[in-house]
From TrEMBL, chain A:
It catalyses: L-glutamyl-tRNA(Gln) + L-glutamine + ATP + H2O = L-glutaminyl-tRNA(Gln) + L-glutamate + ADP + phosphate + H(+). Heterotrimer of A, B and C subunits. NCBIfam families: gatA (TIGR00132). InterPro entries: Amidase, Amidase_CS, Amidase_dom, AS_sf, GatA. It comes from the Bacteria. Allows the formation of correctly charged Gln-tRNA(Gln) through the transamidation of misacylated Glu-tRNA(Gln) in organisms which lack glutaminyl-tRNA synthetase. The reaction takes place in the presence of glutamine and ATP through an activated gamma-phospho-Glu-tRNA(Gln). The keyword Cell wall biogenesis/degradation does not apply. Its EC number is 6.3.5.7. This is Glutamyl-tRNA(Gln) amidotransferase subunit A. Residues 25-467 form the Amidase domain.
TrEMBL record, chain B:
It comes from Tepidiforma flava. This is Aspartyl/glutamyl-tRNA(Asn/Gln) amidotransferase subunit B. The gene is gatB. Residues 336-488 form the Asn/Gln amidotransferase domain. Allows the formation of correctly charged Asn-tRNA(Asn) or Gln-tRNA(Gln) through the transamidation of misacylated Asp-tRNA(Asn) or Glu-tRNA(Gln) in organisms which lack either or both of asparaginyl-tRNA or glutaminyl-tRNA synthetases. The reaction takes place in the presence of glutamine and ATP through an activated phospho-Asp-tRNA(Asn) or phospho-Glu-tRNA(Gln). Transmembrane segments: none annotated. It catalyses: L-glutamyl-tRNA(Gln) + L-glutamine + ATP + H2O = L-glutaminyl-tRNA(Gln) + L-glutamate + ADP + phosphate + H(+); L-aspartyl-tRNA(Asn) + L-glutamine + ATP + H2O = L-asparaginyl-tRNA(Asn) + L-glutamate + ADP + phosphate + 2 H(+). The lineage of its organism: Bacteria, Bacillati, Chloroflexota, Tepidiformia, Tepidiformales.
Length: 489, 490
């Protein structure tokens, strides 16, 4: 059985179901691929090969017993801020280099219940703070389409692993674009669900009012299958939607004739690469060809403020979320100083990277006495404004379509010393995050040989609709299952 | 008070932290009843503040704080929220405490206090919900002599109410009275043990002084580390004197935090305003806002028992003295026993209340004192005690015999009726039966008889005593006296 790692999850599921191969064989194939390309890509912080083979054996037993779900026996990658009991979980930080959690996250529990096989914990920007996966204490992940380039971030490891064949599907997390942007830069499908769709229990927090776990896969169907597995109400996360999950498969394969698609003009700004603009224009043509009604004259005037809002709210929340890492209870602990307070300071000075420190300082400042009203409170008000504009737009349109990122993948090191240039990467993904809306990035061709992504934004808890449009587009365009042309290293 | 001191007015506001006695902690499923447990055995990832965990609101705690708010005459906010209070300390597992900042659950209430006969309402600014911290245990290494600290996380995340008063309190005595009344209410409604020595009832004070007649407040000083009612009282007395002394010497009061030292009997400076914390409060994103419906509040209100102040009023209306009413209403179980006793007696309510109060504050209190017990350990059911009280009240037995029967009842659990019958303790009121005994006493005590005839009235009492001794207290003293006087005048 050769190159099973090339299969999508649903193709693999068919093969497993028909007994064409076993999960152990599938897993071994993926592990071999990992061995070949991982030295180049560095998609994983921790590989769990032995555990994966054990889980694959269990999956085979399940398959044999006829108790399989669509994810039983499917090799997955799991972003390393998703807590996994007994498996080191670092969040890309030196601070947690030895942290072995005694508990599971909700999403990993669900994956395991479904019988999925974990290949390893995917690399990421430290505490999800970054757009290139260069800010990892475990070295940068490289873009499988060109190892000199970044894969995007912060879920760069999760996207690169799928693109390189190091797993079939993966979980990432999205705070301001951390699933969609790397999915776009690696030519994959990435879905950021509605805030409240997926439980955050056991997701190492960055910006609590923004964080959301979501899937990255090689096609829309795989992403829908993953969301179906991880989504739904969890009593341990009071912000999850108590409504039951809709049947997402119902939306796949349905036509989009008469679907009203809005294209907000504020997303087509200077700074966008011409190749990206051209691909989006072509994609809109495909959607029109499918019978959708595309309105290119939509205006969301507050779009430009999303960046400022995000860089106040997310760091503010992060400044509190990261306060627990002080070396007293778990994780990295510097005990070289003579006093407790100095040790706490040294632990944080040495345990956090520069980008994390930058954001803790930003957030601490924004929340400080005398600045709270001008920054945090103002940001919350503008956030409400952005949400209201989206709400008005969704009264007229079923979905909104934009580019996912203004550029294709950029060279490693190009923006790492220019935080603001790095922050601009997320300019198209931030508004939906700030509003808590679901959005998906799907591949829509190439510019200069590198993948371009199209973002489809939906109304609250209307993941079905964006999956429907994404799937219809994918079927018509043929941009799917795009494995990177990466030779064994 | 010195002449100078009387020119000043003391202004005090109190902040009380009170642990709720819910079964589980505020935001996780761990048992909140950790007293006596091994350190770090009532913990989970949530109350340990591990990465990625989330809080879930304990609904019972919300019910309890609403009950508290209602008992303190507060209005209950239909919309409130939790906030993060940010500060670093090793006993704070997450590096922030989930608390409530600008939208507490309860606000604008009051509690009545009475000092030296003067009744006043002390305003309650707010009651809000938060989580407790872990506990630090400070140790010294026996070998190196180095100090070190251990952390017990059992307390982390247990529900804590903060009850903030208005600066309405005007003396240390009033502050103590406020705390006593507050603790009483919290125990009455059953939300907390409110035990200051155990640390589930903690008090900080804000105190300033100003010249009488001034409308503006003076600079306030926060006093911490007061671990008993007495410490609160003494610290406030000390601090008021200190502040007046500073002002009289032409100095200025510095806004600061001071700690009470039991050993030094003084408040000592801990932290000046320049080093005050900036807690950087912001809304807790992990918890949706709290919406309490009117129906929910009414359901909780239905749980509200009659409060001590109302009980005292009612008892007084039944004819009890202020002292009797206050003592009986002091603790809810005691009041409940009293009320059951009243219900078990016969006759009009004022009579029953008076009888019950006499026995509760007499024999029952004596027994409880002697046995260092609370009413819940008193062995007699109210109905059984009522049986005895009726026997005495009706004259079936004498008061003296009643006490003896009481002792036998608490020892054996037998009913009053049974003891009286078996031991023949019924009162002797029959003229025929007593006449013989009276004549016998007169015959045996010629000296007393002579005294009587010499005009010494007390001689009769002596002779009654002789008859009583003869009957082991069973004789009806009144009948005996009548017979004696009739016989002696012959
Ligand atoms: Zn717990």
């Amino acid at each position: 059985m050769s190159e099973l790692w090339r299969l999508t999850a649903h193709e693999a599921h068919e093969g497993l179901r028909r007994r064409e191969f076993t999960s152990v064989e599938l897993t071994q194939s993926v592990l071999e691929r990992v061995a070949e390309v991982e030295p180049t890509v560095n998609a994983y912080i921790t590989l769990t090969a032995d555990l994966a083979l054990e889980q694959a054996k269990e999956a085979d037993a399940k398959l044999a017993a006829g108790a399989a779900t669509p994810l039983t026996g499917i090799p997955v990658g799991v972003k390393d801020l998703i807590v996994t009991k007994g498996v080191r979980t670092t969040a890309g930080s030196k601070m947690l280099e030895n942290f072995i959690p005694p508990y599971d996250s909700h999403v990993y529990e669900n994956l395991r219940r479904a019988g999925a096989v974990m290949i390893g914990k995917c690399n990421m920007d430290e505490f999800a703070m970054g757009s290139s996966t260069e800010h990892s204490a475990y070295g940068p992940t490289r873009n499988p389409w060109n190892p000199a380039l970044v894969p995007g971030g912060s879920s760069g490891g999760s996207a690169a692993a799928v693109a390189a064949g190091e797993c079939l599907v993966s979980l990432g997390s999205d705070t301001g674009g951390s699933i969609r942007q790397p999915a776009a830069l690696c030519g994959q499908v990435g879905l950021d669900p509605t805030y409240g769709r997926v439980s955050r229990y056991g997701i190492i927090a960055f910006g609590s009012s923004l964080d959301q776990v979501g899937p990255i896969g090689r096609d829309v169907e795989d992403v829908a299958t993953m969301l179906d597995c991880i989504g739904g109400h969890d009593p341990r996360d009071s912000t999850t939607n108590p409504e039951p999950m809709p049947d997402l498969r119902h939306y796949l394969g349905r036509d989009i004739r008469g679907m009203r698609i809005g294209v907000p003009k504020e997303y087509f700004i200077s700074g966008m690469e011409p190749g990206v603009a051209a691909r989006i224009e072509e994609a809109l043509g495909v959607l029109e060809g499918l019978g959708a009604i595309v309105d290119r004259d939509v205006s969301l005037p507050s779009t430009g403020h999303a960046l400022a809002v995000y860089y106040i709210i997310a760091p503010s929340e992060a400044s509190a979320n990261l306060a627990r890492y002080d070396g007293v209870k778990y994780g990295f602990s510097d005990r070289s100083a003579p006093s407790m307070w100095e040790n706490m300071e040294q632990t944080r000075a040495k345990g956090f990277g520069n980008e994390v420190k930058r954001r803790i300082m930003l957030g601490t400042y924004a929340l400080s006495a005398g600045y709270y009203d001008a920054y945090y409170l103002k940001a919350q008000k503008v956030r409400t404004l952005i949400s209201r504009e989206f709400a008005e737009a969704f009264a007229r349109y079923d979905v909104l379509v934009t580019p996912t990122s203004p550029t294709v993948a950029f060279p490693i090191g190009a923006k790492v010393d220019d935080p603001f240039a790095m922050y601009l990467n997320d300019i198209y993904t931030l508004p939906a995050s700030v509003a808590g809306l679901p959005a998906i990035s799907v591949p829509c061709g190439f510019s200069e040989g590198l993948p371009v992504g199209m973002q489809i934004i939906g109304n609250f808890f209307d993941e079905g609709r964006i999956l429907q449009v994404a799937h219809a587009y994918e079927q018509a365009s043929g941009f799917k299952n795009q494995l990177a042309p990466l030779a064994a290293g | 008070m010195t002449a100078i001191a009387t020119e000043y007015e003391v202004v005090i506001g109190l902040e009380v932290h009170c642990q709720l006695k819910t079964a589980s902690k505020m935001f996780c499923g761990c048992s909140a009843d950790y007293s006596g447990a091994e350190p770090n055995t009532h913990v989970c990832p949530v109350c340990l503040g591990m990465p990625g965990v989330l809080p879930v609101i304990n609904e019972k705690a919300i019910e309890d704080i609403v009950l508290t708010g209602l008992a303190l005459n507060c209005s209950i906010a239909p919309f409130s929220k939790f906030d993060r209070k940010n500060y670093h300390y090793p006993d704070l597992m997450k590096g922030y405490q989930i608390s409530q900042y600008d939208l507490p659950i309860c606000r604008d209430g009051w509690l009545e206090v009475e000092v030296e006969g003067e009744r006043r309402r002390v305003g309650i600014t707010r009651v809000h919900m938060e989580e407790d911290t872990a506990r630090l245990l400070h140790r010294v290494d026996p070998v190196t002599g180095e100090p070190y600290s251990l952390i017990d996380v059992n307390r982390s995340g247990t529900p804590l109410m903060e009850i903030v008063s208005e600066p309405d309190i005007r003396s240390a005595a009033e502050a103590r009275e406020y705390l006593v009344r507050l603790r009483q209410v919290l125990r009455y409604i059953g939300v907390s043990n409110a035990n200051m020595e155990e640390g589930d009832f903690r008090c900080d004070a804000n105190i300033s002084v100003r010249r009488r007649g001034d409308t503006a407040f003076g600079t306030k000083v926060e006093i911490k580390n007061m671990n008993s009612f007495r410490a609160v009282h003494d610290a406030l007395v000390f601090e008021a004197k200190r502040q007046i002394g500073v002002l009289e010497a032409g100095g200025r009061i510095e806004q600061e935090t001071r700690g009470w030292s039991d050993e030094r009997q003084a408040t000592l400076s801990q932290r000046s305003k320049e080093h005050a914390h900036d807690y950087r409060y912001f809304p807790e994103p992990d918890l949706p806002p709290l919406r309490l419906s009117a129906a929910f509040v009414e359901r909780v209100r239905a749980r509200l028992p009659e409060l001590p102040a109302a009980k005292v009023e009612r008892y007084r209306a039944l004819g009890l003295s202020a002292y009797e009413a206050a003592t009986l209403a002091e603790e809810r179980p005691r009041a409940a026993y009293f009320e059951q006793l009243v219900a078990a007696l016969s006759g009009d309510e004022a009579r029953r209340a008076k009888l019950a109060a006499n026995w509760m504050l007499g024999e029952v209190a004596r027994w409880l004192n002697a046995n260092q017990a609370e009413i819940d350990r008193f062995p007699l059911e109210p109905a059984a005690l009522a049986g005895l009280i009726e026997q005495v009240a009706s004259g079936a037995v004498t008061a003296l015999v009643g006490k003896e029967v009481f002792d036998q009842m608490v020892a054996s659990g037998e009913s009053a009726q049974a003891i009286i019958e078996r031991q023949g303790l019924a009162q002797i009121s029959g003229q025929d039966e007593l006449a013989g005994l009276v004549r016998k006493a007169i015959a045996a005590n010629p000296k007393a008889v002579a005294d009587y005839h010499a005009g010494k009235e007390t001689a009769v009492k002596f002779l009654i005593g002789q008859v009583m001794r003869e009957t082991r207290g069973r004789a009806n003293a009144q009948v005996v006296q009548e017979l004696l006087e009739r016989e002696l005048k012959k």
